[in-house]
Amino acid sequence: MSEALVELDRIVKRFDADGPSAVAELSTAIMGGGITGLAGPDGAGKTTLLRLIMGLLKPDSGTLRVCGRDPISDATEVRDVVSYMPQRFGLYEDLTVIENLTLYADLRGVVGDERRSAFERLLAFTNLAQFQGRLAGALSGGMKQKLGLACALVRTPRLLLLDEPSAGVDPVSRRELWRMVRTLTSEGIGVVWSTAYLDEAERCEQVLLLNDGMLIYSGPPSELTERMVGRTFHIRNAGGQRRAVLASAVTKPSIIDGVIQGANVRIVMAAGVAAPSAENFRDAAQVEIVPVPPRFEDAFVDLLGSATPAVSRLAASVDRGVRSAGAVVEAKELTRRFGSFTAADRISFSISKGEIFGLLGPNGAGKSTTFKMLCGLLRPTSGVARVAGLDVTVQTSAARNRLGYMAQKFSLYGDLSVAQNLAFFAGVYGLAGAHRQRAVDRVMEAFGLRQYLNTNAGLLPAGYKQRLALSCAVMHEPPVLFLDEPTSGVDPLTRREFWAHINALVDGGVTVLVTTHFLDEAEYCDRIALVYRGRIIATGSPDDLKGSVRTPLLPDPTLEDAFIALVEADDTKVAA
Predict the structure, then answer these.
(1) DSSP letter string over 110-121?
(2) What residue spans of 305-448 are helical by DSSP H?
(3) Which of 115, 126, 232, 334 has its CA 20 to 30 A from that of 477?
(4) Is the pLDDT score of 254 beyond 50?
C-alpha cells in the first residue's frame, strides 16, 4: 500500500478578499507509487494547488501536509524532498544546458561527487549530453522540457510536481517525457502531473479533476470513463459534410458534445436519452450511427458541460470575396537557410478556398519557419509564397492585408488592456469610424471579452489570451487565416469553442492554415502535410495518414500513432 505524500483538509486560497476562491474547501490525499493527474479547465486552480503544495503560496485556511510536514513552517525540509517544474519555462535562456544544471545544483546545495554523479545521470537520462554546451533558448520545445525536468531532478525528490510539462511539445517528445517519468515512478518517486491533454490524464493511476477551485472528481480515470458507456457514437460517412453535420448535432438538446474525427463526427449523448439514429441527420445522405468506446475526455465534458457554441457569432459576417484563380495559398519550393542549417527544404503545397490545411511535425521541424515565409515575416532563401494570388515577397503589404495571423507565442501587448489591444489592431488593419467599432464589437461579443475589457492582456487567463489573439487576427474579416498552435495550453472546452468559430469561418469561405500538437484537433483538417527535418514526408487527409500505418497489430491507429510511425519510418530511411 503506497503512502499519502500530500494530505489536504479543507484548503482555501483567495487572491482577492472579496473575490471567488482560487482553491475552495479542497480535501483529498495524493498517494505515492504512481502518477496523479491534475486536470480541469483554464482557471480551475491547478497551478495554485501545485504552488500551495510546494509552499510557494500560503493557504488562507485549512491544513496541508506534504511528506508529513507543513510546507510553510517546514519549508526547508519540504523543499529537500519535493521538486517543482513550473508551467512557464523556468530556466535561463542565455545560459547553456550545463550552466542551467550547475545553477540549480548550486541552489539545491548539490556539490562534489554528488553533483558529478547527478549531472552524468541526468544528461544520459534526458539524452542532452551532446547538447550541454547549447544555450537553453536555442533548444527545441521538447528539449527545453527535458532540461526543465533534469533541473527539477538535480536532487532526487520523493515528490515531483509537473505543471503542464508537455504543453507545446510534439507527440514524439511527449512520449519521451512519459517514458522518463514512468522510469521515475518505478524508482519510488511520486508524481503529480497537471495537464491539458486528457489522453494523458487517462494514463494516470489517479486523477484530480478541478473546476472553479473545487474538486469535482478524485479517483481512477477508468471509473469516470465507465460512466459514459453507451453514450458515445460515431456519425460515419459524413465526409465533406462533416462540418455541417457537427454544427447540426451540437444544436440538439440530446447531444452534449461533438467533435470531428477524420471523415466522422464523434458525439456524446446526454444521460438517459435514446441512442441516435441516422434519421436525426437527414441533411447528410447515407450516414451511419455506430457505437464507439467512451474516452476520459467524454466524461470530462459531461461533468463540466460543453463550451461549444451552437452557432458561432463569427459566422454571420465573413469575407467571401477571395479574388484568386486556383489556390488561395501556395508554397512552391519554399526554402529557408540559416547559415549552413536548412530550416525549410523545398516545401510545396497549395490550399483551396474554404479548406483547412494542417502543418504537423515535431518541434523544430520547420513549421513556424514555413508560416513566417508565407506571412511575409521571413524572406525565403528561394521559392515562391503566394496568398490570395499575391506574391508575398514582392507584394508583402497587400498580401498581409488579406490574411489574419495568430502567432505561436502570445504576441499581443501584455501591458495594454484588452480594449487597447483591440483598438490598436483595428488601427493596424486600417479600420476606422463606424466600421472599426462594429468590428471590435463583433469579436468582443463572439469571444466573450467584454468582462475583461479593462484587464491588461498579460494578466488574462490562458484561454482568454488565446481568445484575444484570435479576435485580433479575424477582426478585419480576412479571407485567409494562419493559426500557429492556436490552442496551445488551453483546455478541451476552450479548444471546442475555437474550432466552432474556425469551422464557421471556413463554411463562409475562409481558408485556414493551422499547426497544432493536439492531434485530436488535427482531425478537423481537410488535408495535412507532415513536416520533418525541414521536409514534407507525407500528405493526405487525416484518414489517409492513419490508413498508411494500419497493420494487423495496429488495426485502428490514431493520428498520433500515424505521426510517430511516419517520423520513425523517415528516420529509418535516412539512417539506411
Answers:
(1) --HHHHHHHHHH
(2) 367-375, 396-400, 418-428, 433-446
(3) 334
(4) yes
Checking if the pLDDT of 309 tops 70, the result is: no
402 CB-contact burial (10 Å; exposed 0-12 / middle 13-18 / buried 19+): buried
Please report, in angstroms and rounded to a whole number, the separation of the first and last CA atoms in the chain: 49
**Residue 338: pLDDT band with limits 50, 70, 90:** very high
Q: How far apart are CA 465 and CA 384, in angstroms?
A: 33
β-bridge partners, 387 = 329, 390
Residue 282: its pLDDT value, please? 59
The answer to whether residues 529 and 358 touch, using CB atoms and an 8 Å cutoff, is: yes
CA atoms within 13 Å, Cβ hemisphere of 182: 10
Amino acid at 570: D
Whose CA is closest to 65, among 111, 18, 5, 139? 5
* DSSP β-ladder status, 329-338 and 403-406: unpaired
Adjacent-strand bridge partners of 472: none
Whole-angstrom distance, CA of residue 207 vs CA of residue 225? 12
* Per-residue pLDDT band at 1 (split at 50, 70, 90): very low
Q: How does pLDDT run across 368-394, given as a tens digit for each residue?
A: 899 889 988 899 999 999 998 899 999
Residue 408 DSSP code:
S
* Measured distance CA(521)–CA(29) in Å, rounded: 33
Cβ burial of 472 (10 Å; 0-12, 13-18, 19+) is: buried
Torsion angle (degrees, nearest 10) of CA 257, 261, 265, 269? -30
Longest dimension (CA), the chain: 73
Check the CA dihedral 519-522-528-534 and report its sign.
Answer: negative
Overall average pLDDT of the 191-219 stretch: 92
Beta bridge partners of 11: 26
Q: How far apart are CA 531 and CA 50, in angstroms?
A: 36
Query: What span, in angstroms and rounded, lies between the C-alpha atoms of 317 and 361?
Result: 33
How far is the C-alpha of 452 from the C-alpha of 459, rounded, in Å?
Answer: 10
Range name among 227-241, 404-418, 433-447, 511-525 with the lowest pLDDT average? 404-418
Parallel, antiparallel or unpaired: strands 264-269 and 232-236: antiparallel
CA distance 375 to 373: 5
Per DSSP, the three-state class of 376 is: coil
Strand-strand pairing, 4-13 and 61-66: antiparallel
Q: CA-CA distances (angstroms) from residue 298 to 5, 45, 225, 248, 350?
A: 30, 21, 7, 19, 35
Q: Which three cell numbers stand for residue 465?
A: 489570451
d(CA 31, CA 157): 15
| Region of 67 on the Ramachandran plot (φ > 0 left; ψ -120 to 50 alpha; else beta) | left
- Torsion sign across C-alpha atoms 279, 281, 284, 289: negative
Q: What is the mean pLDDT of residues 19-39?
A: 92
Q: How far is 186 from 33, CA to CA, in rounded Å?
A: 8
Tell me if 447 sits within 8 A of 470, measured CB to CB: yes
Contact 506, 352 (CB under 8 A): no
